[in-house]
Amino acid sequence: MPGPALDALTAALTGTAAAPPRSRPGPAARLPAPPDRPGTGPRPRHTLAGKLTAAILHDRHGLPQKAIAALFQTTPEVISRHTGDIRRLLHQAGHIIQPGPVLTA
Q1: How far apart are the C-alpha atoms of 35 and 74, rounded to whole Å?
Q2: Contacts of 41 by beta carbon, 8 Å cutoff, 6+ apart
Q3: What is the pLDDT averaged over residues 33-47?
């Protein structure tokens, strides 16, 4: 997907994504990590464009969630949740990620 097309799709989903989340804890529920314990800070937040990219990598290109999680430095469970969220947003906006062509040997 070319950059401008990804930007346009992300912009189209932004309004849909601004709807209240299902039941995620708010920022007040997260406590800052002590500075002397590396790796225990807050989890990285993924942008809408990043979540969309993860969904495209999985749905169109068939990349396993474990590989996508490694690219995004997160867990496969987080990628699974993000791709599900993006699929719902795409459906609400009237879009679908088409599977890529099947390559034969």
Answers
A1: 21
A2: 32, 33
A3: 63
Nearest to 94 by CA among 11, 12, 5: 12
- Whether the per-residue pLDDT at 81 is higher than 90: the answer is yes
Give the residue from 59, 39, 48, 66 showing the smallest Cα distance to 11.
48
Which H or E run includes 71? helix 65-72
pLDDT of amino acid 9: 74
Asked whether 72 and 79 are in contact (CB, 8 A), the reply is yes
- The reported pTM is 0.61
Long-range CB pairs of 45-51 (<8 Å, 24+ gap) are: 46/72, 46/74, 46/78, 46/82, 48/10, 48/13, 48/14, 48/17, 49/6, 49/7, 49/10, 51/82, 51/83, 51/85, 51/86
